[in-house]
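1st attempt posting a full record on here, be nice pls
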Amino acid sequence: MKASKLYKKLEEDFDVANMNDDWSFMNLENDFITPDFKTKYMGLVLDNAKTINKVYTATFPDKEIIQKIIDRDETDVLLFSHHAMEYIASDEGFPFYDIPLSYLSEMKKRRISFYMLHTPLDNYSKYSTSVCFAKALGLKIIKPFCQYDEKTKVGVICRTSLERTEDFAELVRKTVGHEVKLYEYGEKTIKNGLVAIASGGGSYPFVASEVAEMEINLYLTGFTKPLPHFEPTLEFHRIAKDQFINVIGATHYSTEKFACIAMVDYFNSLGLETKFLEGKYSLKDL
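the predicted structure (as tokens):
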């Protein structure tokens, strides 16, 4: 498939022109990254192939993910990722890291392009992170929530047949395939059978306040660890405690990967062979 045609299709389907994002903290002072990405912070990051014969989807463009593609010794392929940077969970410091220049150079040599959608893939849609996670959990989606900005809602309100928070936490654990963290700040019974979900790094005060306003007492997100050096996470937990909202954390990676898995079907529908590359989760997020 002609690469420019594919990029245009992605821009139209995910309304890239009307979305906002910010990856200005990346190292953009190199000739590998496209000029458009340096101002728009989404879409085509590396324009290395004129034709795309195969697509790999991933949640983060970790070095291990890129190495998997390099080891396949393929050319004219596209790496599609939810994020623009590698993610390494830590109790302190910034968790995002630039793709090393040596990898960017190798990707250029091998004609491996890189396209990312962060806000556009979080935004409420068939392929959004929270929608895909809710579907993986077998929940009925009621409506979107979590007003990220004036154009974007990144979460979903869902109905569950489960009655107890610990049973719902067990459902999440089985779905993601690893341990999760339940902060029991409220009653053990799920109020009105409703749960709020915002995949990824959803431990921000405005989200907890929105959940409280809807009188929902169970909230599921990815990153939940209270960080002493990052006040928003501390305020998030203060609000959750004060409003008796139970919180479940299931890691940044595991709550967002289902959207990148679903994107396999999107690219397949365009006639492109596509494979999801499994990354890594970190329990340090919890």
